[in-house]
Amino acid sequence: MKGKYNNKVDIYSLGYIIYELFTLCNYLIDKMSDDIKKIDKKKYDEEWQDLINSLLKIDYHKRPHIEEVYNILKN
Prior knowledge:
Elements: H1 8-23, H2 27-32, H3 46-55, H4 66-74
Helix pairs in contact: 1-3
């Protein structure tokens, strides 16, 4: 992989893991097929979908800092 990486790559990885836990699907395969799953709103709050979307932003500048993620998760 080329380029410089910082801790925001870990934020993306966290989003990837949470996506897979909630949907039981592989994010990269879904992304390649344009079949990104939404989490089941009957089981989980819509806030989880918002969190996943923010963690998986392509532009790492737009991803939240770990402190923001922690504050969301502790509530």
